[in-house]
Amino acid sequence: MNKARLEALSDGVFAVAMTLLVFDIKLPNFPGTVMDAQLWHALTIISPHIVVYMSTFVVLSTMWVNHHFLFQTFALEVDRRLNLLNLLYLMFIAFVPFSASFIGAYSDHQPAVILYGVNLLAITFMSVFIVVYVFHTQGTEHLSDRLLNQSRFRSVLNIVCYLLGILLSFVNVYVSLVLYIVPVIFNFIPGTLDFTERFFGFDLG
Amino acid sequence: MNKARLEALSDGVFAVAMTLLVFDIKLPNFPGTVMDAQLWHALTIISPHIVVYMSTFVVLSTMWVNHHFLFQTFALEVDRRLNLLNLLYLMFIAFVPFSASFIGAYSDHQPAVILYGVNLLAITFMSVFIVVYVFHTQGTEHLSDRLLNQSRFRSVLNIVCYLLGILLSFVNVYVSLVLYIVPVIFNFIPGTLDFTERFFGFDLG
Amino acid sequence: MNKARLEALSDGVFAVAMTLLVFDIKLPNFPGTVMDAQLWHALTIISPHIVVYMSTFVVLSTMWVNHHFLFQTFALEVDRRLNLLNLLYLMFIAFVPFSASFIGAYSDHQPAVILYGVNLLAITFMSVFIVVYVFHTQGTEHLSDRLLNQSRFRSVLNIVCYLLGILLSFVNVYVSLVLYIVPVIFNFIPGTLDFTERFFGFDLG
Amino acid sequence: MNKARLEALSDGVFAVAMTLLVFDIKLPNFPGTVMDAQLWHALTIISPHIVVYMSTFVVLSTMWVNHHFLFQTFALEVDRRLNLLNLLYLMFIAFVPFSASFIGAYSDHQPAVILYGVNLLAITFMSVFIVVYVFHTQGTEHLSDRLLNQSRFRSVLNIVCYLLGILLSFVNVYVSLVLYIVPVIFNFIPGTLDFTERFFGFDLG
User: In Å, how far from its chain's centre is CA A29?
Assistant: First the structure.
């Protein structure tokens, strides 16, 4: 199996999914002459969709950075099983534009919040399956303890945040939305993990 | 001819076709205030589309794995004729989002089931043409008997399942849908072919 | 300038344009219960769109094969001007889904036939500009006379067919549609040029 | 971090965004029989969308050429922070199809003109951040003074034109549209910068 083509397909799916998010933002049609004030008002009405676009773009970016890292650093080669796991992973990535469009339209409704969380959770689980499979078949000798601990910390954090977000949607959907953003901080913004270690006085190796 | 660009275009077509499948899943618009119960109900109504999305993503993944394998292992180089056959193959791959959207809307109607089957059959025939052409022009000396027999077994299985699925749609469309999924098992899930050999006591070389 | 990224962007634009052609094929919505006979009828009604999808996919494939050939064999390197010409070329490639959707809806109306022809003509002219620029800056020493003559023959043939197609649309649009397909034969199907040479007793070098 | 995959994702996002611009051009539906004159009229009505398609394709091409140049010549390697900045840059690139569709529908209305300008400005700022970060971490020893000055000149020109365009939209939106096109001239058309230097008698090193 050829790692380059697996990465090419994955990058293609990510690029299409990320770019198509914007097609969920649609202005209403104004029959006849339209005033500037109406357009400004329309922009404020669709602003939740713009917020969802930006957040979901960042969420998918986070997933892409992790995918990149996983196949760059952890997986030395690709076999048929790993290829299969990656394609199922991509199935949930390509589903994100639908979840995002749902939450863009009904961000304060529980069904949309739960579906979005379940989608993110499914991606995380597939990504954990891939890591476990890669470690099982290719070993971890080429990786430092610190790398492995950071990876474990991130996986657990993601699962906890998404699970908690889904559960707390029964109480308050806005709490869920905040929880969905937390993993982005520790996966996307460089240095946050180091800061957390120093702040809470633990050490990932 | 440059194998890398043929693969890049193919990966692009696969990535776009796979990712755009999700745009067939659309929630109805609810004018005015909407209740959570209405959204849950809407999700159950569109659930056939979600099932079709997932199945078709897996079907396209299977096709991609085969394409990958064919150009990785069988085809050592690419000439103008092979390029042409591959582009016609991609024409049927890029048609899948339409067949899938048709069967998503009318999964229990024969026209949708037949069109979906004809599309999968066309892809398989193009893929067989490519294999035959590659073997004819580049020989099979670099391939083991086992690889060749497995490839033949898969081609025959795909053609039989899709043809049978199309024919049996006159009796029962659900039988057809099951038959369309069978090739996925033997092309996508690693080890199923080995298991079948041992179970039925035959040997592909 | 990096030839690999120019090719990656071009392959991306081609892949997206080719795959999105299928989204022009849309089944009408049937409110309430639908009969199989209605679906078969709907398929016949949208059949012109399917024909346009297939023809345009082949037309874009032809363009891609030429683009591939041009940057593989003629252009040894890429400078800023060549990059610019290629991006304008891609602008007309990415316009094809619109022309195709127009002619799919109104294949027997002159405006659609003319727009489609003008689009193909614009692509051909941009491609000729690229070839002329490449020959001017990088020379033709590395190319055989036969290759150069074949390239000239194809360029002239394309321009004549598209121009004639546009003009004859004033007489009969179906003649135009046939003329638009002729260049595909000599650019896409291998061996047709050799056959024509032998048949008409001329020699391209 | 792997520069190749960052470029692959970026090229994918650019390719999808550029190709999807055309989907903003839509012909009205004509119920019943349609006359050629109606279709010609429809084409004139949608002509602003065609102009916006072409201009925005060229604007995105300009951005792509700059991105290409930046990662080809300035950035020798990619770290996690640079990856992050690039993904935020792509977030604004992928937003362009929405801004373009807005200005295509309401090109003479200030909200559309401002949103388009703000989007272009955001892209420019992200691109300046990337350049500053790359210079800070990887130094400028491998770059000539002339390259650096040209880069600074272009950045300042872009920011001034877009800012001025946004401000002058309060006076006249057409002045803004002209200002948005100016940077294209100096970033996309080769030789304009050399000409300007000679014409105004200054020297970028």
Answer: 32
Write the ipTM: 0.90
d(CA A144, CA C139): 53
Task: Check residue C197 and give its pLDDT.
Answer: 74
The widest CA-to-CA distance across chain D, in whole angstroms, is 68
Q: What is the pLDDT along chain D (205 residues), one digit of tens a residue?
A: 678 889 999 999 999 999 999 998 988 778 778 889 999 999 998 998 999 999 999 999 999 999 988 898 888 888 888 999 999 999 999 999 999 999 998 888 999 999 999 999 999 999 999 999 999 998 888 888 888 888 888 889 999 999 999 999 999 999 999 999 888 887 777 777 777 777 777 777 7
| Burial class of residue A166 in the structure, from the number of CB atoms within 10 Å of its CB (0-12 exposed, 13-18 middle, 19+ buried) | buried
**Is the CB of residue D170 less than 8 Å away from at least one CB of chain C?**
no
Chain C residues closer than 8 Å to B13 by CB: 15, 18-19
How crowded is residue A146: how many other Cβ atoms within 10 Å of its Cβ?
11
Which of C16, C18, C20, C23 would you mutate first to test chain A, the one with the most A CBs within 10 A?
C16
List subunits contacting chain A, requiring 3 or more Cβ pairs under 8 Å: B, C, D
pLDDT reported for residue B1: 65
The 3-state secondary structure of D116-146, one letter per residue: HHHHHHHHHHHHHHHHHHHHHHHCCCCCCHH
Please name which of B174, B29, B49 lies closest in space to residue B102, comparing C-alpha atoms: B49
pLDDT at D95: 96
Q: Do A57 and D106 touch (CB under 8 A)?
A: no
Quick check: A115 and B43 CB within 8 A? yes
How far are the Cα atoms of A50, B43, B185, C6 from residue A25, in angstroms, in the given order?
7, 21, 39, 30
CA A133 to chain centre: 21
Nearest Cα to D120, choosing from D56, D49, D189?
Answer: D56
List the structure tokens of C194.
């050799």
Write the burial class of residue B32 (CB in 10 Å: 0-12 exposed, 13-18 middle, 19+ buried).
exposed
Torsion of CA C136, C68, B84, C202, to 10 degrees: 10
Q: Does A22 touch chain B (CB under 8 A)?
A: no
Contact D90 A20 (CB under 8 A): no
Contact A28/B at CB under 8 A:
no
Residues of chain C with Cβ-Cβ distance to D104 below 8 Å are none
In chain B, residues with a C-beta closer than 8 Å to the C-beta of D16 are 16
- CA A171 to chain D, closest CA, distance in angstroms equals 32
Nearest to C12 by CA among C90, C70, C125: C90
Q: Would you state the torsion angle of the CA atoms of residues D183, D185, D187, D192, taken in this order, to the nearest 10 degrees? A: -130
- Amino acid sitting at position B126: M
From chain B, the residues in CB contact with A8 under 8 A are: 7-8, 11
* Encoded amino acid at B12, one letter: G
Burial of A201 (0-12, 13-18, 19+ CB in 10 A): exposed
Cα–Cα separations (whole angstroms), residue D103 to C124, C201, D15: 30, 56, 21
The answer, for D105 touching chain A at a CB cutoff of 8 Å, is: yes
pTM of the model: 0.93
Residue D17 at interface with chain A, using a CB cutoff of 8 Å = yes
Q: How far apart are CA A61 and CA A68, in angstroms?
A: 10
